[in-house]
């Protein structure tokens, strides 16, 4: 079954300069009123996506899951969580998106299954040294009775990366590796069943018309568990990774064999299916995942991690564009996703604020300058959308949403909060269900009580209120995506002169983007003004603002 109309099937290179909108399905729109967003909810809001003008959506996991990690603990890769709908609902959604010219990217979570996955249950039941256990990473513990984990590796979410199981005979037994939560056992990518099963999953969704895949934790699938184990392994601290593929858990050279074989599967389809790696490794290593022989693209989180600083932005852009040119990939740009504090909020806090510590104060200290944060966020998205390559947007940023920093502790769902002994609140503040209407019990999300509570200020930024307001952030996003489509040019830029607080560049065809990171107004270059993130007075661009202009020919 292949969903979709022919109109969007014809450009195999569509992904190179696409605007992709990430949907976190449980928090987007709730059609059945149970408090959790669902696929029919997304279907009912396809109009919003069409009006926004995005080229594709990336759907975070909607598969059956106990939600130990927001759906990234997958019970069955080839089904839909009954709370979110059915496979028929998925087909209907893909068709509706395609009919509106919007492509579909789904999330592939290959590093780990959930602990409720049929394979993991079979592994526990079958006992030690069984073929079922070989699909995961089981080891005996240290200590006289195996009571200590095999080594001291930490998990991303805090505490040990090993958990001990109860054997079928009721006694405590072996340990299994989980780089994330204990409910997310890591697969053994040296096992042929694992390779075969993921190729089946890719074909399953590609056959249903899915256009591409976002590959979760793409850098961690292959591991070296030879003994003696390496001590003091750091996980998640990018700067400490060696750049030579020698880390036992992260970014090993042999992981690339997996993506070369997936490329063959993607290329069985016409147009070939596309992919984007989530590989949180430094730019030169990240590029290895993004070659044409592998996944084609990799997320670039460098700007997402950067302060609001023109020089920093410029060096990141320069580095990534030259790496893309060398590898034949296209660059990706993003400011927010479901794992980080929303960027309107980051830009409204003093530079260098420890975001985890700030969340623990419920957003009280240091105080957030909401207006400044939003003003910079509006400037930043125009800058991103003018860059060569793809831009990935996160649901709600088109409303200028801030982080919900004051979620009460008792409603937090993120395993980071639970596993890290309350020292980090985690990622729920960017996953609060979207406000569609200015009032009502869930601001139009659907249910009376959404699965995470919305703050009262959500009503003032709801989609409906912004729709009719020409100066709203929603209207800025719509105008920017529309103009971008008209101005889109080959994947190059030339830097224009400007002082250290200005980032100005020109794309082929005369499309210029000028961002003033400073506070003093600057003169704009001559040209026809297309769009600006703030109202302009005369030919001056105020601070924390971006303008797009087109150079007048002749
Ligand atoms: C996802 C996270 C998730 C983790 C484990 C990440 O890359 O974006 O949300 O917790 O992978 O699957």
Protein described:
The chain is globular and about 80 Å long. It has 15 helices and 18 strands. The longest helix has 18 residues, at 310-327. Helix 5 runs parallel beside helix 6 (255-266) and helix 12 runs parallel beside helix 15 (473-487). An eight-stranded parallel β-sheet has the order 9-8-7-3-2-1-11-10. Strands 12-13-14-18-16 form a five-stranded antiparallel β-sheet, covered by helices on one side. It is α/β, with parallel strands linked by helices. It has helices at residues 39-44, 46-52, 87-99, 118-126, 192-207, 255-266, 283-286, 302-305, 310-327, 343-346, 355-360, 370-386, 415-419, 463-467, 473-487, and strands at residues 19-23, 56-59, 103-108, 138-139, 162-166, 172-177, 212-215, 274-277, 296-298, 332-334, 390-394, 494-495, 502-507, 511-516, 522-523, 528-532, 540-541, 545-550. Strand 5 (162-166) and strand 6 (172-177) form a beta hairpin. Helices cover 25% and strands 14% of the residues. It binds beta-D-glucopyranose (BGC). The site of beta-D-glucopyranose has 10 residues, from loops.
Distinctive features:
disordered N terminus; eight-stranded parallel β-sheet; five-stranded antiparallel β-sheet; 14% strand; 15 helices; 554 residues; binds beta-D-glucopyranose; 25% helix; alpha/beta
